[in-house]
Design brief:
- The structure is a single chain.
- This protein is α+β, with helices and mostly antiparallel strands.
- The chain has three domains: about 1-145, no CATH class; about 165-260, Helix Hairpins; about 265-415, Heat Shock Protein 90, CATH 3.30.565.
- The protein is about 55% helix and about 20% strand.
- The strands form three sheets. The protein has a five-stranded antiparallel β-sheet. A five-stranded mixed β-sheet has the order 7-9-10-12-11. A two-stranded antiparallel sheet has the order 6-8.
- The longest helix is centred in the middle third of the chain and has 83 residues, at about 150-230.
């Protein structure tokens, strides 16, 4: 659940960060557009006024007598009515003010004249200015103010809208994270219940299996002991039966304890040839008694990092299954090869093989196709392999079965075989 919540929190903060950056980019872009729009409006008005004043001066040069209405720039005031976005216009020539339409509260200050060439925003007015020469002996200074109150309102509304979007999106993301946390906790609770039910089911299965497996040996032991008590005779055959049934109970107890306790391994460097030598000593005589051809291939000169006892136990389980599945006159073969920094034992037999339906279940606990099996042998093999950092698999085979059990090779062996290939 912690992993799920961590991923959910990561996604929440990532989405929140992306949202914040998106809103900031949108706000900055919108502000840039508004500033550009105000700049273009100011430049357009400056060009218009410069053209009108230049035309006015040129007209005065052509007229023999200047009419009264053209003696000053008052006529320009009427034309400015068509420019409602202009807050005011100031025209000077040689320090003398020829026209000033700024209202008293917007009268330009000295700082405005110094910074207006780059554009200066004060309040809701943008000030821009320029100097131009209408005729060689007539230079004018032109200052105008553009009303940008609409742009200000638009930008303020955008900020409010962005804040609302941020709050709403954050609330939605937080709500999603909250419900995801609830789902994660519910999932954890369901997983805990499922695990408990699986344990109960496993305990029930173990109980049924133990009751079934113990009943017959106990009956044989009790009946044998009862017979000898009643007859006061010691029957060697009956003692042998009692001994075999007791061994069977001991084996079952050992398998169940291994299943319950798990594995505590103490790995050490073990030569592969020594492992195969012990396997040969144990299964060679059995192969002769059963009439099975037992083949052990030459092993590579390497060491593996394993717990010797558990490694032998896993190989013995595989070989025991192979011998039990192989008929007299058949063949069981064990070999060892290097595969990508792993030493893999291959146990092959010429038995009837394993059906496709059974192949997926062979490594599960309590699954067996034997009449008297416990169903823990291959499960223990899998646990041994996984505990050592290796693996076990059932390989495809046209006849019989092939099990491959792999263990890590020792570190010094890796340095001697850096390619990790077969040799």
């Amino acid at each position: 659940m912690r992993s799920l919540l961590f991923r959910a929190s990561y996604i929440f903060f990532l989405a929140l960060t992306i949202l914040i950056f998106s809103l900031l980019i949108e706000i900055l872009y919108f502000r840039r557009v508004l500033e550009k729009n105000a700049f273009l409006e100011a430049r357009s008005a400056l060009n218009f006024l410069e053209a009108r004043i230049t035309a006015y001066v040129e007209t005065l040069e052509l007229l023999p007598e200047v009419p009264d209405y053209l003696k000053d720039l008052a006529w320009l005031t009427d034309e400015l009515q068509s420019q409602p976005h202009l807050a005011g216009v100031l025209v000077k020539e040689k320090g003398q003010i020829l026209l000033n339409t700024f209202p008293p509260q917007l009268t330009p200050e000295a700082k405005i004249f110094k910074a207006c060439r780059r554009g200066l925003v004060i309040g809701a007015v943008r000030y821009d200015c320029t100097e131009f020469e209408a005729l060689p002996d007539r230079k004018f200074f032109l200052l105008l103010g553009v009303d940008i109150s609409y742009e200000k309102r638009a930008f303020r509304n955008l900020l409010i809208l962005s804040l609302l979007v941020f709050v709403a999106a954050s609330a939605l993301l937080a709500a999603g994270l909250y419900y995801l946390e609830k789902l994660a906790r519910r999932q954890e609770d369901l997983e805990r219940r499922l695990l408990a039910s699986e344990k109960l089911a496993a305990m029930g299965k173990i109980s049924a299996m133990v009751a079934h497996e113990i009943r017959n040996p106990l009956n044989s032991i009790v009946m044998g002991l009862q017979y000898m008590a009643e007859t006061s005779r010691t029957d060697p055959a009956l003692l042998k039966t009692i001994y075999q049934e007791a061994l069977r109970l001991s084996e079952l107890t050992g398998e169940l304890l291994s299943y319950a306790k798990g594995f505590e391994i103490k790995p050490s460097q073990v030569k592969v040839k020594e492992i195969l030598k012990e396997v040969a000593l144990k299964f060679g005589p059995k192969a002769q008694r059963w009439g099975i051809h037992f083949v052990i291939d030459e092993a590579p000169e390497v060491k593996i990092n394993v717990d010797r006892r558990w490694c032998l136990r896993a190989l013995e389980n595989l070989l025991r299954n192979a011998f039990e599945a192989t008929a007299r006159g058949g063949k069981v073969k064990i070999s060892a090869t290097l595969e990508n920094n792993l030493l893999c034992f291959r146990v092959e037999d010429t038995g009837p093989g394993i059906s496709p339906q059974e192949r997926e279940k062979v490594f599960e606990p309590f699954f067996t196709t034997k009449e008297s099996g416990f169903g823990l042998g291959l499960y223990l093999v899998r646990k041994v392999a996984e505990t050592h950092g290796g693996r076990v698999s059932l390989e495809p085979s046209p006849t019989g079965a092939i099990f491959k059990l792999c263990f890590p090779i020792a570190r010094d062996e890796k340095s001697q075989n850096p390619s990790g290939g077969r040799r």
